[in-house]
């Protein structure tokens, strides 16, 4: 009997032991596999760990009759490709943002921009934890309201409310600290 079939059969009996065997059998190989896609061993480890946690939570093994190997390798490959797409999207956003900042270089020196960004993040840190998390997911990670709602398991309206309150607070803080740059950054969304 192949190890994949044994693991699937074990899931029907004792999930903890089956998952432990799955982890011990496939973890290192999955990391090497993911590393071939992302070319970063630490990122590959994160991808595999995240996938295995998702595997444990969603329990896809309950519907699998065979093909565990193929299933987990395809899932890790998809996760790695998704990571690369997301990283590329973030890099593109950063490059776009950098071009905008550099076009204002005549009026604001680069050092001043760094200082402003520090102040901005200090202001963001003043937000309550959930509000700060929603703000960062939308404005820094570039996630949609729906994606944030799903990830945090809250309603889309709660995301909008938290974001609205965060922006109101930050606009007031900007005005008090005379930081027009932040306003431009915030209203772009």
UniProtKB/TrEMBL annotation:
Gene3D superfamilies, alphabetized: 1.10.1740.10, Winged helix-like DNA-binding domain superfamily/Winged helix DNA-binding domain
Cross-referenced CDD domains: Sigma70_r4
Short name of any one Pfam family annotated for the protein: Sigma70_r4_2
SUPFAM superfamilies registered for this protein in UniProt: Sigma2 domain of RNA polymerase sigma factors, Sigma3 and sigma4 domains of RNA polymerase sigma factors
Domain RNA polymerase sigma factor 70 region 4 type: 120-170
Keyword Cytoplasm: no
Keyword entries, A-Z: Sigma factor, Transcription, Transcription regulation
Family in the record: Belongs to the sigma-70 factor family. ECF subfamily.
Record-linked PANTHER family: RNA POLYMERASE ECF-TYPE SIGMA FACTO (PTHR43133), RNA POLYMERASE SIGMA-70 FACTOR ECF SUBFAMILY (PTHR43133:SF46)
The protein, known as: RNA polymerase sigma-70 factor
UniProt organism field: Butyricimonas hominis
Upper taxonomic lineage: Bacteria, Pseudomonadati, Bacteroidota, Bacteroidia, Bacteroidales
């Amino acid at each position: 009997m192949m190890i994949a079939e044994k693991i699937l059969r074990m899931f029907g009996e004792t999930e903890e032991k089956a998952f432990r065997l799955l982890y011990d059998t496939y973890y290192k190989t999955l990391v090497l596999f993911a590393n071939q896609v992302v070319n970063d061993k630490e990122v590959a480890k994160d991808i595999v760990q995240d996938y295995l946690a998702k595997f444990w939570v969603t329990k896809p093994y309950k519907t699998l009759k065979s093909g565990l190997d193929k299933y987990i390798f395809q899932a890790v490959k998809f996760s790695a490709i998704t990571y690369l797409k997301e990283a590329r999207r973030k890099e593109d956003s950063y490059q776009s943002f950098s071009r905008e900042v550099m076009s204002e270089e005549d009026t604001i020196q680069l050092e001043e921009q760094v200082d402003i960004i520090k102040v901005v993040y200090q202001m963001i840190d003043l937000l309550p934890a959930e509000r700060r998390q929603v703000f960062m997911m939308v404005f820094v990670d570039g996630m949609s309201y729906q994606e944030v709602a799903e990830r945090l398991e809250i309603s889309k309206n709660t995301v909008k409310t938290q974001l609205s309150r965060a922006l109101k607070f930050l606009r007031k803080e900007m005005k008090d600290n005379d930081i027009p740059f932040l306003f431009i950054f915030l209203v772009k969304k």
